[in-house]
Amino acid sequence: MRHLHIALISAMREEIGNTLNHLNDISSKKFGDLEIYTGKWDNKTDNFQSIFISLVWSGWGKVSASRAATRLISNSSNEHPIDCIFFTGVAGAVDSKLKQWDVVLADKVVQYDMDARPLFKRFYIPALNLDRLTSSEEWKKKTYSAILNAKNKGLLEEFGSITKGLIGTGDRFISDQNFLVELSKDLNGLKAIEMEGAAVAQVASQEGIPWVIIRVISDEANSDAAQNFSEFLEIYKKNSWDLLNAILLGISK
Ligand code: ADE
Question: Which of 191, 174, 166 minimizes the C-alpha distance to 228?
């Protein structure tokens, strides 16, 4: 039977919550100010001999996220290569139908502040020859069913609806509705914005590792965003493991 190795990245410790309390045989390795934890998740499964979890909180922004993803990948052994990288955390809503606690699973992500015009069209990532990165169909499907099943069983009471769609990443905390309106005109179908997802997606894609980005709405990226975000995070940190647990249970079945 084979092993499963899942990598979990969040920007903040609160978004990883008390995940470490659910792992055994934990070891950690420091790279400067970044600490990567690896442990075993002792959930009985018929499909895998063991489930290894590596986790790290990266810090805010695309540079920190890229650095953490790169370190995470190079820290994994050839014996247990990473099967999929999951980035979870909070996001600001762009789609006005989305409310706090709604979950957005990225179909695609875009670095909305990438702009090398006139040499390339707006949002285009020259290294990948595209402007939107597409998440692994297989892992996304498993993740979506995992969350939906948990929700239907009443295991994710705090959480709202689950939607799939485009998530935008940029080095900016958005608290300006006008900026959002302009951005959504340029990015059809944009659901939510955050500051790390598409950076991790780029690193993972270039390294040939599947990735999944899951975001929970904390604010509406308007003038109340900073306050809503801070208040939400205080509650979310007690629930972030529930979401990760639901995902891990579903994908390891
Ligand atoms: N993450 C959560 N809320 C956000 C916002 N308003 N802007 C950027 N990233 C966010």
Answer: 174
